[in-house]
């Protein structure tokens, strides 16, 4: 294991030597953290999950939310030990091995490319609600605009993400308040039937049995993908030692309010039997209330959520490619930065691949979403697995006196990290049982084989890529 001299800034932490600018303030970091936990999985995917599990979906979100908190606290401990832009790929490289860092970096990059294609496809679909615009045109325009914004500066990325997240938060809080008003005052068409008893009176709290609840865990975990994005911002946060712990510690109340709270209120106003796959629970709730504008409001919110995810994809892919290049595990050309600190080549390369989504929208607009979504869940969860394993290995290194202790220790670790790993393993097993989700697991071995061969070729040409260099 080798090391190199690392430059430090006036905050006393690393990443200035990486060439990035600290353009993300506390306000933006908080909203990136909040927005990362709220996506189309809640606004759209929850409809399918409710139909499969009934009110017990609330329990599934609560349990998965606890696991997400364990993951984020493990990441927080690593971030306070060494806040770098490579984040979990860098930690995997240091504590698990160079190959683990190579796999994590490229897999997380692919995850966001695939997610970017998925979300820009979804955003183009949502545009047809108002205007008869070809999907590929909308997809192209969105991709170009978000690429340009990320290229200008990290501050502009942060500002866009702040307002995207604000729309999502406002929509959920608004829905909770409306439902609370119906339950207490009884206004709207749903006022006569709304009651907390709907959580157990329509076939019980577990109408599809415990098995039905367990089978929704993959949908639930998909909804939380991207919550770890806050870790990638470490190298560009103005004061990471302060802002990142605060953002991570908000995870419990974010999940409690935006997922558990929102579902409790909606299912207390609308019986779970009224929800169907493919129909947003928010739209169904608005219809039950007799509010005709609900569909238009939700369409705008999910459009915002999709653009937010694509924006995050643009941001993270460039950083991951540059991290790989700095460690000799990717082409050196990806290390190039603009004057504003944006990874020019990595961002451009990733955006160009996302334009494949535009082409898919052109040749097969009806099936575009299905073509690119299958790999997202398993590749996203790989990052969580590496975060947990790296944190466990880091704790072991601290006990041996080989690494300094973090200022932000994860409570209950490493036991909480082992619990989270077992939970993720159970979710993967459930994916294998579910015929619709099984295709994700078919893709994983092929991707692993490609990465394995690529790493052997890389190692033979550049032996330094197989050693860890502290940046």
From TrEMBL:
<keyword id="KW-0029">Amino-acid transport</keyword>
<dbReference type="InterPro" id="IPR004840">
    <property type="entry name" value="Amino_acid_permease_CS"/>
</dbReference>
<comment type="similarity">
    <text>Belongs to the amino acid-polyamine-organocation (APC) superfamily. Amino acid transporter (AAT) (TC 2.A.3.1) family.</text>
</comment>
<keyword id="KW-0812">Transmembrane</keyword>
<feature type="transmembrane region" description="Helical">
    <location>
        <begin position="368"/>
        <end position="389"/>
    </location>
</feature>
<dbReference type="GO" id="GO:0055085">
    <property type="term" value="P:transmembrane transport"/>
</dbReference>
<feature type="transmembrane region" description="Helical">
    <location>
        <begin position="210"/>
        <end position="230"/>
    </location>
</feature>
<feature type="transmembrane region" description="Helical">
    <location>
        <begin position="290"/>
        <end position="310"/>
    </location>
</feature>
<feature type="transmembrane region" description="Helical">
    <location>
        <begin position="410"/>
        <end position="433"/>
    </location>
</feature>
<keyword id="KW-1003">Cell membrane</keyword>
<dbReference type="GO" id="GO:0005886">
    <property type="term" value="C:plasma membrane"/>
</dbReference>
<feature type="transmembrane region" description="Helical">
    <location>
        <begin position="95"/>
        <end position="115"/>
    </location>
</feature>
<feature type="transmembrane region" description="Helical">
    <location>
        <begin position="31"/>
        <end position="50"/>
    </location>
</feature>
<feature type="transmembrane region" description="Helical">
    <location>
        <begin position="169"/>
        <end position="190"/>
    </location>
</feature>
<feature type="transmembrane region" description="Helical">
    <location>
        <begin position="135"/>
        <end position="157"/>
    </location>
</feature>
<feature type="transmembrane region" description="Helical">
    <location>
        <begin position="439"/>
        <end position="458"/>
    </location>
</feature>
<keyword id="KW-0813">Transport</keyword>
<feature type="transmembrane region" description="Helical">
    <location>
        <begin position="251"/>
        <end position="270"/>
    </location>
</feature>
<feature type="transmembrane region" description="Helical">
    <location>
        <begin position="56"/>
        <end position="75"/>
    </location>
</feature>
<feature type="transmembrane region" description="Helical">
    <location>
        <begin position="342"/>
        <end position="362"/>
    </location>
</feature>
<keyword id="KW-0472">Membrane</keyword>
<dbReference type="GO" id="GO:0006865">
    <property type="term" value="P:amino acid transport"/>
</dbReference>
<dbReference type="Pfam" id="PF00324">
    <property type="entry name" value="AA_permease"/>
</dbReference>
<dbReference type="InterPro" id="IPR004841">
    <property type="entry name" value="AA-permease/SLC12A_dom"/>
</dbReference>
<feature type="domain" description="Amino acid permease/ SLC12A">
    <location>
        <begin position="29"/>
        <end position="461"/>
    </location>
</feature>
<protein>
    <submittedName>
        <fullName>Proline-specific permease</fullName>
    </submittedName>
</protein>
<keyword id="KW-1133">Transmembrane helix</keyword>
């Amino acid at each position: 294991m080798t090391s190199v001299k690392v430059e430090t800034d006036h905050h006393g932490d690393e990443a200035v030597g990486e060439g990035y600018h600290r353009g993300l303030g506390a306000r933006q970091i908080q909203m990136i953290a909040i927005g990362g936990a709220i996506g189309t999985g809640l606004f759209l995917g929850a409809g399918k999950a409710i139909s499969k599990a009934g009110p017990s979906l609330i329990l599934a979100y609560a349990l998965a939310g606890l696991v997400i908190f364990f993951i984020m606290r493990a990441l927080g401990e690593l971030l306070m030990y060494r806040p770098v832009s490579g984040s979990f790929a860098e930690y995997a490289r240091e504590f698990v091995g160079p190959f683990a860092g190579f796999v994590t970096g490229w897999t997380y990059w692919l995850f966001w490319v695939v997610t970017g294609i998925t979300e820009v496809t979804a955003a183009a679909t949502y545009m047809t609600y108002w205007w008869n615009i070809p999907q590929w045109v909308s997809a192209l325009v969105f991709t170009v605009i978000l690429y340009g914004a990320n290229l200008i500066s990290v501050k502009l990325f942060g500002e866009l993400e702040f307002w995207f997240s604000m729309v999502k938060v406002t929509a959920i809080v608004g829905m909770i308040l409306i439902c609370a008003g119906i339950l207490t005052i009884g206004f709207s068409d749903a006022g006569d039937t709304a009651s907390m008893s709907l959580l157990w009176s329509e076939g019980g709290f577990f109408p599809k049995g415990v098995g039905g609840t367990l089978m929704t865990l993959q949908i639930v975990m998909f909804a939380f993908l991207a919550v770890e994005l806050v870790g990638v911002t470490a190298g560009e946060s103005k004061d990471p030692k302060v802002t990142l712990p605060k953002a991570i510690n908000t995870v419990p109340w974010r999940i409690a309010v935006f997922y558990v709270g929102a579902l409790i209120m909606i299912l207390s106003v609308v019986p779970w039997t009224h929800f169907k796959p493919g129909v947003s629970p928010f739209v169904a709730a608005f219809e039950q209330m007799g509010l005709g504008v609900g569909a238009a409001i939700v369409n705008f919110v999910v459009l915002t959520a999709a653009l937010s995810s694509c924006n995050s994809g643009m941001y993270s892919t460039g950083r991951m490619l540059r991290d790989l290049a700095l460690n000799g595990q990717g082409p050196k050309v990806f290390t190039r930065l603009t004057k504003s600190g944006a990874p020019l080549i990595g961002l451009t390369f990733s955006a160009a691949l996302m334009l494949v989504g535009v082409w898919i929208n052109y040749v097969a607009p009806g099936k575009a979403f299905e073509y690119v979504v299958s790999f997202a869940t398993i590749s996203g969860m790989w990052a969580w697995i590496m975060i947990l394993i790296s944190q466990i290995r880091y704790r072991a290194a601290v006990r041996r006196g080989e690494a300094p202790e973090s200022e932000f220790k994860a409570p209950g670790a490493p036991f909480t990290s082992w619990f989270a790993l077992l939970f993720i393993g159970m979710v993967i097993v459930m994916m294998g049982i579910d015929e619709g989700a099984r295709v994700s697991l078919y893709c994983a071995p092929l991707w692993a084989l490609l990465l394995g061969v690529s790493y052997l070729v890389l190692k033979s040409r550049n032996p330094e890529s197989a050693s860890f260099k502290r940046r």
